[in-house]
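Technical note accompanying the year-one report. For the benefit of new consortium partners, we illustrate the data format agreed upon in the data management plan: each record pairs a sequence with a structure-token string. No post-processing was applied to the example shown here.
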Amino acid sequence: MDAQDKGPLAGLRVIEMGSLIAGPFCGQVLGDFGAEVIKLEDPKAGDPMRQWGRSLPKGHSPWWPVIGRNKKSVTLDLRGPEGQAIAKKLIEKADVLVENFRPGTLEKWGLGYDALSKINPGLILSRASGYGQTGPMSQRAGYALIGEAMGGLRYITGEPDRPPARAGISIGDSLAGLHGALGVMMALHHRHATGKGQVVDVSIYESVLAVMENTITEYALTGYIRERSGSILPGIAPSNAYPTLGGEMVVIGANQDTLFQRLSEAMERPELAQDPRFQGHAARGKHQGEIDGIIADWTRTRTTDEVLGLMEKFGIAAGRVYRAPDMIADEHFKARGSIVDVPHPVFGEVKMQNAFPTLSDTPGRVRWPGPALGEHTEEVLRGVAGYSTAEIEAFRTRGLI
């Protein structure tokens, strides 16, 4: 297997603890790019993601194949000293430990960084939690919806005349997972220079806060609090979703002067670009509702294909509002391999998003879907920790694995 097949993180060993999304998504990203990710799961139930989903086709979660992909599943009871001793033997041979327990849990188990760094000074510990490892709120339970609210995203999401809405996915958890993977890469670079590991402290609320653009700075300088604005960004016009013939929607972004002029020409309304209400960025922002109404009146008389064809002809950014079937059918997705078919022992084959971003020489890839619970227990305990077959059977008899 060449470097391209292995991925850029080949040779990196990651132990993943925790469950649900924030920690496991970090592990998914690292595994997508070639790291050996050993996921430790409770022997009785495993990660709850194995059962999550609106439906369970053939009794299996359609979520687990994605977030569990490229990982090795090892069952291990971490709540007792024997299981903790086994975990230490695995961590001793690892580069990275990923966890998303409530702060203090690892320490309670004798697996805090002070203890682990003594047996593995180069270990990088990525810790995801609701509020971080320090501060007065650190010990509270924290989930994505809380982090999204505390980080400012929830307040500005939705229609202005309705309560705050949430995104249709647990974006706070995924952002925390991405920040965890980013932190691991930074810490690995530092370790390469110094030989020392360190702790990557990721909070969900700060992961959301990091992508909140200028909301803090704008308030501090001007007193302006960004409010919910529905499908628009206030003052950025035209940039919205518009109805087309047949009940579909297209999104069009033409909020620069040159783009708005070209949009006016595409609509056969060149006078719009000369209208004082719409001349210049500030003027269009002030009359945002009027300009969106004019564009909507135009788009709803044409099919989606007609509108998109004109937008492409005039060099204006535009696109459909995609659902899952649209993504699967789209030729651009196909050309880039954005969605891949992965062999699955129960489903036969499952479709899922590919590994991103795309690296030119060592791209990530999906090598296998989420494994069966404990599928790799013997392989890992024998090959990584050095236990014998008899020892592994004894662990199983005592309910440790």
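Partners are asked to follow this layout when depositing records. DSSP finds 18 helices and eleven strands in the chain.
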